[in-house]
Amino acid sequence: MDKKKEEEKFRVDKWLFATRFFKTRSLAAEAIEKGRVTLNDVRVKSAKLVSIGDMLSIRIGNYQYEVEVLGLSNKRGSATIAQQLYRETDESREQREIIAERLKAQPQAFYTKGRPTKRDRRVIARFKSND
To answer: Which CATH homologous superfamily contains domain 2-129?
Structure first.
């Protein structure tokens, strides 16, 4: 029985959903399809099986995660359980922190489309009055 547990494998999209990298399995499958997820430096399909010891590279927005698979699950649980299923490399963590600092330093846009809301106009007025 233990040998069966060791050889157990799960689909990449289900594992990504269970580890809470994506909110839905369909979002995980879409990211895999677009090439944002690689398994052992090889582009894969959603049905590819992941096993313990595999290295995954996951790109979500501006951030790049390099993780090693430590455990397998295809059921979504709590965040603490999900974090026990993988280990992020130190280089990956450092790069994400650098990117986060750069994004914080960039000026924020007040609105993206349409007319500004009343709240946006107040922020704009405060910004202009400080000049």
So the answer is: RNA-binding S4 domain (3.10.290.10)
